[in-house]
Design goal:
The protein has 443 residues and is α/β, with parallel strands linked by helices. The protein folds into 3 domains: 154 residues, 3-Layer(aba) Sandwich (Rossmann fold); 173 residues, Arc Repressor Mutant, subunit A; 103 residues, Trna Endonuclease, Chain: A, domain 1 (3-Layer(aba) Sandwich), CATH 3.40.1350. 44% of the residues lie in helices and 14% in strands. The strands form 3 sheets. A 5-stranded parallel sheet has the order 2-3-4-1-5, with helices on both faces. A 5-stranded mixed sheet has the order 8-9-10-11-12, sandwiched between helices. The chain has a two-stranded antiparallel ribbon with strand order 6-7. Strand 9 and strand 10 form a beta hairpin. Helix 13 packs across helix 16. The two termini are 12 Å apart.
């Protein structure tokens, strides 16, 4: 991302850059590492438009002193005035741009006009925001005001477990455990470093009514929607094992058709995912399960929401006891996701495999299935988050499961086992947590 930004900003003719991603993902930090003292950084807030314009005017006047003396009644006037002051190329960052648009919906169209008229020549304009849906609406269709105008569009995603391991200087196994709570969000990582253990950090950052992240989902949801009630309800159910659409609809006493849009929005935001068995088409799959995609939200709705009454009473130790009793099972599910994601990297010398999926039918369930479609080779495997694994026993179980899957009976198969620690492989294709974490370093 730094390389792309620096390359775009090196063009002095003027460019529009759109940078967005969920809150706490590191957008502002990235920008502050890229821009220089000659540039203008403006952080918007929720005040009325005239106050926002005046604040930006102050920021620009640090560069052009006379700019502060001009009466600027609206956004149109601001950009019209600014073009007359440009002496040397510079970058103007408008951070938390959605706050500005909320009070002035015409702003994107004004920027479009200024770009089309060439009035922003010499200005590299960066629009940055945490409201992913609103930022995407700026450019995602021909009807969008800034469609086709941006030189670079960057959606900041999650960092990998590899980088978390390096930050905390811990083993790969410990990194998987940490990632199962904090996911790939840099701000969570930074706060985590202030505590000497994972559980202590979880207790002080999440499991207290005074915690920094105690109301985190509400903050995230309100970036994208008017109310967080429905999203909270859906993720509360999914986080506690209500995974089928019919079950979710039944618990909410709503027709399943009424949930299509809120579910799709949560999927687009990478907060929720819809799993279908390997080999079935996503669109028409009759067997599908909803799972929370974001590790932090998964932890929150699994352990915080059901025990809020205890937390409000200060009985955090009771909640922590519950977490520890379910810890291995919880981390195991997170590790499975990482193993599936690592397949193309771990097996790149054996074929062009896609990220793996789960498979299940009425007779069996398998953790890992992937395919190299060019050569019609399948990867089939199991994941065991245990300190000790009997490889022969696991392999025998896997062989039995394979016989219950029709499309694998005559297929060419590579069998793999994923475990926690390094062990003697005994001729079995086996990967440890360290193998998985290292494989994901470049994503």
């Amino acid at each position: 991302e730094k390389q792309l930004l620096r390359s775009t900003l090196s063009d002095d003719s003027g460019n529009l850059i759109i940078l967005y991603g969920r809150r706490r993902i590191g957008k502002s930090t990235l920008l502050n590492e890229i821009i220089s003292k000659k540039d203008v950084y403006f952080l918007a807030d929720m005040r009325e438009t005239p106050l926002q314009i005046r604040e930006l005017q102050k920021q620009i006047s640090e560069k052009y002193k006379d700019f502060a003396n001009i009466i600027i009644p609206n956004w149109d006037a601001l950009f019209t005035t600014l073009k007359n002051f440009i002496r040397n190329p510079f970058t103007l960052v408008m951070d938390e741009f959605p706050y500005l648009v909320k009070n002035a919906p015409e702003l994107p169209s004004i920027i479009q006009k200024e770009i089309d008229m060439g009035n922003l020549s010499g200005i590299n304009l960066i629009l940055c925001g945490s409201s992913q849906s609103m930022m995407a609406n700026l450019f995602d269709s021909a009807k969008s005001p800034l469609y086709g105008r941006a030189s670079s569009i960057i959606k900041l995603g999650y960092l990998s477990v590899f980088h978390l391991q390096k930050l905390l200087n811990i083993s790969a196994e410990k990194a998987v455990e940490e990632y199962s709570i904090w996911g790939g969000v840099p701000r969570y990582w930074v706060e985590r470093t202030k505590y000497n253990s994972l559980f202590k950090a979880a207790e002080y950052l999440v499991l207290s009514k005074y915690s920094l992240f105690y109301d985190e989902p509400i903050i995230l949801f309100l970036d994208e929607m008017r109310t967080s009630m429905q999203s909270n309800s859906i993720l509360s159910l999914v986080g506690n094992g209500v995974n089928k659409l019919s079950e979710i609809a039944g618990r909410l006493s709503k027709p399943a058709t009424n949930l299509s849009k809120p579910l799709q929005l949560l999927i687009e935001l990478n907060y929720l995912k819809r799993e279908v068995p390997f080999g079935e088409k996503e669109k028409n799959a009759k067997r599908s399960l909803y799972k929370i995609a974001d590790p932090f939200l998964n932890f929150y709705f699994r352990f915080v929401v059901p025990h809020r009454s205890l937390i409000e009473l200060g009985l955090n130790e009771m909640v922590m006891k519950k977490i520890k009793s379910e810890w291995n099972r919880y981390v195991s599910a997170a590790y499975e996701d990482l193993c599936r994601l690592s397949i193309p990297f771990l097996l790149k010398r054996k074929g062009n495999f896609i990220p793996a999926k789960r498979y299940w039918n009425k007779y069996t369930e398998i953790d890992i299935i992937s395919i190299d479609a060019d050569n019609n080779i399948y990867v089939v495997g199991e994941v065991k988050w245990n300190d000790r694994i009997k490889l022969n026993t696991v392999m025998d179980s896997l062989d039995k499961k394979i016989t219950k899957i029709p499309f694998l009976k005559e297929a060419k198969i590579i069998k793999v086992i994923f475990g926690k620690k390094h062990i003697q492989k005994g001729g079995v294709l086996y990967f440890s947590a360290e193998d998985v974490v290292n494989a994901l370093k470049d994503i």
